[in-house]
Amino acid sequence: MSALIVGPIIFVCLFGATLAGMALSRRLPRHHLDSDSKDVIKLATAVVGTLAALALGLLIASAKTTHENASAELRTSMARLVLLDRVMARYGSDTDAARARLRILVEMRLSEVWGSDASASNVGGDKASIEPVQAELRALSPDTNAQRLLQSRALQLSGDIAEAHWLLAETVGVGLPWAFLAVLVFWLGLLFVTFGLLAPTNATVIGVLFACALSVAAAVFLIVDMAHPYIGIIHVSDAPLRTALEQLGQK
Length: 251
Fold this sequence. Notes:
This protein is mainly α and 251 residues long. Helices cover 76% and strands 0% of the residues. The protein has one domain (3-247).
């Protein structure tokens, strides 16, 4: 599910929980909210708040790691693409078709992941696979030891690129564990119900709780968005891919 959907839903849930708590406080008997009851509620709220803070910290760390790993993997793959093109250029004119296909594959990757038709289903798909280039490399008939070494090196590089491609295909779209996120939202909703239950009903308090609900929802939005590094607002830059595209095909 997109972060643009998750964020507003969480905000509505949290602020709705606050209003529900305020409505409930007016219906409860007075002795349910005396000083002793409030002390117990505050202690219980502190426990849930600690759990929610720990969960948010874990999710932020996980999303940040996912985003950084995706960026590093992209830069590594692009360096291997340029090196593969250089190795094929040194082999000779027999690799011209493979080099042209390699450039087409990079252009397809740019269009699928960062173009106007980008979507989660395109990321890691098999349309931009390097396997056709590998097939052309295997079909080469080297005449010298140098060409045999270059062919072997090219196949090794293309294998590394293919491995990174399919690792991406396996991990993209996984994102955050939704059960974990659902439990976190439940804890946060419980906290905001308690806020509304104990808070006086006036415009200032409602405004502050509104801002708190918006801030927490924004934090979860950023976490979910960063957990999908190739889609969304905070996505991996396509600069390494465009730089590699400028280098491909050069003599």
